[in-house]
TrEMBL record:
Protein name, per record: Cysteine desulfurase
UniProt entry tagged with the keyword Methyltransferase: no
PROSITE patterns: AA_TRANSFER_CLASS_5
Species per Swiss-Prot/TrEMBL record: Oceanospirillum linum
Annotated InterPro entries: Aminotrans_V_dom, Aminotrans_V_PyrdxlP_BS, Cys_dSase_SufS, Cysteine_dSase, PyrdxlP-dep_Trfase, PyrdxlP-dep_Trfase_major, PyrdxlP-dep_Trfase_small
Lineage: Bacteria, Pseudomonadati, Pseudomonadota, Gammaproteobacteria, Oceanospirillales
GO biological process, one term: cysteine metabolic process
Length: 406
């Protein structure tokens, strides 16, 4: 049965066996980062024990092995998102760097008056890079609104598209609200007008099966650390022709073909966008995380997280004064909430004493919280290893915190 299968997967996460404040850890801060299975941790240890050397340029044996392991990881990522070619998989530091890469290459080709459309529910990583371009190049940043359930207003988005629109950049899944956006519909709409689409997949890849060819998106950015892999690495997927057409960004080793003071030529994809020694162990860890998730089966993961989401939501709604922000029909396992008369921060601190880790604050999405009239929420977010028993502990802790704070 599903719950039993998920419990088996849970056994692979060593950190979940520890206690905090003398209580068993209930880790519900998965939107910030998720825990790592043994296989991922071990792959990185093994790299440093057995393979460590710089890649792509060495003639010696170890460098060859390390290069192969790193490039195999790229192939695993390709499979994981079903890209056509591993040339379309650019290794970056994370979602943030992936979006900044697009802003600093594709975006550099925009002119004053050109328009980029984002949504109101974006993470700051998909707002600020475009504002920097606005200040430097005079582009126009348009913001598609969300409704009171936290769903994107597709009609308004449609109405915003003009002959000047050069990019639509939206999140696949909102980290602040949990909303799963109709990204295929957005891509189809944009493509009617020949506008490319960037999807921020940071919160999507750990929860849903993502197929970039099926979505037909032009760019897709995500972070390894939110999908059971290490910090310090992530991916920018881009369609090959588009990546080919873009200017280079960071310059240095690995991204060149030939260098002289008169003229330098650049490496082909994907290395063109990968200057300097990369995060090698992390890349290998990401490859293992991709394998691990493909084997775990994202359909089962999504089904389980939906059970947890519904189970927790129903119980939370019984708590007096509870307001859940983000009540979209299609939602991932994220519950952002405020409780009348109680500060989000205080809830977080009190339930931490009972072993429950959640996030409080603005979740790097200040504009959408402002839209809902709050500056901070408490947020519980689930991963595949969470259980209904943990939800029960969380609900009991919330009730206790409310009793103490009101
Ligand atoms: N976008 C979304 C939707 C996110 O949830 C996050 C991480 N909170 C990011 C972007 C940024 O990811 P990172 O910090 O790993 O670059």
């Amino acid at each position: 049965e599903l719950a039993t299968y998920m419990l088996e997967l849970r056994q692979e996460f060593p950190i979940l066996k520890r206690t905090v404040h003398g209580k068993p850890l209930v880790y519900f801060d998965n939107g910030a980062t998720v825990q790592k299975p043994e296989a991922v941790i071990e792959s990185m240890n093994a790299y440093y024990r057995e393979l460590n050397s710089n890649i792509h340029r060495g003639v010696h044996f170890l460098s060859g092995e390390a290069t192969d392991a790193y490039e195999q990881a790229r192939e695993k990522v390709r499979q994981f998102i079903n890209a056509r070619s591993s040339k379309e998989v650019i290794f970056v530091r994370g979602t943030t760097e992936g979006i900044n890469l697009v802003a600093n290459t594709f975006g550099r080709q925009l002119a004053a008056g050109d328009e980029v459309i984002v949504s109101m529910m974006e993470h700051h990583a998909n707002i600020v890079p475009w504002q920097i371009l606005r200040d430097q190049l005079g582009i126009v940043l348009k913001v598609a609104p969300v409704d009171e359930d936290g769903e994107l207003d597709m009609a308004a988005l449609n109405a915003m598209i003009s002959a000047k629109t050069k990019l639509i950049s939206v999140t696949h899944v909102s980290n602040a609200l949990g909303t799963i956006n109709p990204v295929k519909q957005i891509v189809d709409l944009a493509h009617l007008h020949e506008i490319p689409v960037l999807l921020d997949g940071a919160q999507a890849v750990p929860h849903l099966k993502v197929d970039v060819q099926e979505l037909d998106c032009d760019f897709y950015a995500f972070s390894a650390h939110k999908m059971y892999g290490p910090t310090g690495i992530g991916v920018l997927y881009g369609k090959e022709a588009l990546l080919e057409s873009m200017p280079v960004w960071q310059g240095g080793g690995d991204m060149i073909d030939h260098v002289s003071f008169e003229k330098t030529t650049y490496a082909g994809l994907p290395h063109k966008f990968e200057a300097g020694t990369p995060a090698i162990a992390e890349g290998i860890g990401l490859g293992v995380a991709c394998d691990w998730l493909m084997q775990a089966d994202l359909a089962k993961v999504a089904a389980w997280e939906e059970i947890l989401l519904n189970y927790a939501t129903e119980q939370m709604q019984q708590i007096p004064g509870m307001r859940i922000l983000g009540t979209a029909k299609h939602k991932a396992g994220v519950i952002s909430f405020v409780i009348d008369g109680v500060h989000a921060q205080d809830i977080g601190v009190l339930i931490d004493q009972l072993g429950v880790a959640i996030r409080t604050g603005h979740h790097c999405a200040m504009p959408v919280l402002h839209h809902f009239g709050v500056d901070a929420t408490a947020r519980a977010s689930f991963a595949l290893y969470n259980t209904k028993e943990e939800v029960d502990i969380f609900i009991a802790a919330l009730n206790r915190a409310c009793d103490m704070l009101r």
